[in-house]
Amino acid sequence: MRVLVIGSGGREHALVWKLSQSRRVRDIYALPGNGGISDLAQIVDIDSKDLNGIVEFVKRESIDLTIVGPEAPLTEGIVDLFKENGLRIFGPSKDAARLESSKVFAKEFMQEEKIPTADFKIFSDYNQAKKYLREQQFPKIIKADGLCGGKGVFVVESLTEAENALDRIMNQKIFDAAGDTVIIEECLFGEEVSIIAISDGENIVPLASSQDHKRIYEGDRGPNTGGMGAYSPAPAAEGEVFDKVINKVLKPTILGMKKRAAPFKGVLYAGIMVVNDKPYVLEFNVRFGDPETQAILPRMETDIVDLLEASIDGNLSGFNIEWKDKSSLSIVLASGGYPGSYEKNKEISGLKEAAAIDDILVFHAGTVKKEDSIGVRYFTAGGRVLNVTALGDNIREAKERAYRAAGLISFENIYYRRDISDRALKGEV
Ligand code: AMP
Ligand code: GLY
């Protein structure tokens, strides 16, 4: 079969890698892809915003299955467009994708379905929001309603910080219309984990649990990022907590979306805060996590095409995913300065040496490949550059192996956290 993957990050490289292992996949195409993906897939030169152009390409090349990495094409309705054209695609409809594209929709949905989440209030009027803030204790969380590229959430420690965030979102419109409405919610303190599941609109099959590391600096300090490293399974999300997320969060969500005539097919990612063994939803995403996917997929034995097709065809009931009895850990190697400004176009060395270590996979995120008289070389092209993933008999072993491999890779101003999984290893979570 011929498969197209849309996206350009480490998550998409992991998906392409997993697809390349499938006995059912012959040709892989990627749009726009990255340096590492171009080693496994043919790069398609179409703008990922050009949904009609993508449909034409899929028809012309007789692509059998399309998989979408990032949320933007899903919230723009790529799945609906493919269906109108009789094409096969994995993911939620535009309506179902509102669980991620509108935080107000998601919060009201959770309230109606009694899904545990932080208490909140919604404001479309700046003055009313400001008045409400004056009566509050801090810290509080202020969220813009719409998609903001992962930057729309402010943890505010004082009234001054809160007013400043509110002014930027609602008056200065730093996120344009995505900030027309805001949510002000209680700040939860606990352990953040990711539970990602696949649904066919009725049934859900959870993937292995994982934990991301969102802050840029060690010890979970500094600004939030797209994610600096992940490991799987995550002890904080196992056992009773996992079962509670399935029964109190994921199942009611799938049922609730069906009731609203927006059945949810695709990846349902619950960002969870575990507080005293109780899970609360921080956010829903309607796509695979990044970097969680780079840690989860290397553990999966099952052919991913079977899983994704069962979601599309409504056949997930009784579907069993086989997992390797191993732990995995993935480190994000970033450009110095990220998530602020950083330089690009630095040559990357040591990739082959790192990949030569047993049970190591190096997934590319912001990279480009250049071929000239010197040979094939890879250069940095983004903030998060590479994901070094290792498997091991336990987290400790995976960690040791991943850091050994990461140490062989270099580029100017390389930065990565040295403490991925440390809290789990110390038994703190
Ligand atoms: P979100 O995009 O809603 O997941 O928010 C981004 C990040 O902000 C989350 O990954 C959490 O680290 C943090 N966050 C969001 N909501 C809350 C909350 N109610 N309490 C504490 N932290 C939060
Ligand atoms: N790792 C966080 C996310 O994918 O949104």
Task: Describe the structure in your own words.
This protein is an alpha+beta fold and 429 residues long. It is built from 14 helices and 24 strands. Strand 7 (140-144) and strand 8 (153-156) form a beta hairpin. Helix 7 runs antiparallel to helix 8. The mean pLDDT is 97. Bound molecules: adenosine monophosphate (AMP) and glycine (GLY). Residues 212, 227, 285, 289-290, 292 line the site of glycine.
Question: Can I get a quick summary?
Answer:
With about 425 residues, this protein is α+β, with helices and mostly antiparallel strands.
Task: Give the strand content.
Answer: 25-35%
Q: From the alpha-carbon coordinates, what is the Rg to the nearest angstrom?
A: 21 Å
Q: What structural category characterises the helix and strand content?
A: alpha+beta
Oligomer: single chain
- How many helices does DSSP assign? 14
Overall outline: globular
* Unreliable stretches: none
| Sheet with the most strands, sense and barrel status | 6 strands, antiparallel
Give a list of the ligands. adenosine monophosphate, glycine
Mean pLDDT: 97
- State the helicity in percent bands: 25-40%
Give the terminus-to-terminus CA distance: 43 Å
Map the helices and strands.
Elements lengths: L1 E6 L2 H11 L6 E6 L9 E2 L7 H10 L4 E4 L2 H5 L2 H7 L4 E2 L7 H4 L1 H11 L6 E4 L2 H9 L5 E5 L8 E4 L2 H13 L10 E5 L4 E10 L3 E3 L4 E2 L2 E3 L3 E4 L4 E4 L7 H20 L5 E11 L2 E8 L6 H5 L7 H10 L13 E9 L11 E2 L2 H5 L4 E5 L2 E6 L2 E6 L3 E9 L2 H12 L7 E2 L6 H4 L4
Parallel strand pairs: 1-2, 1-4, 2-3, 4-5
Antiparallel strand pairs: 6-9, 7-8, 7-9, 10-11, 10-16, 12-15, 13-14, 15-18, 16-17, 18-23, 18-24, 19-22, 20-23, 21-22
Helix pairs in contact: 7-8
The structure holds adenosine monophosphate and glycine (GLY).
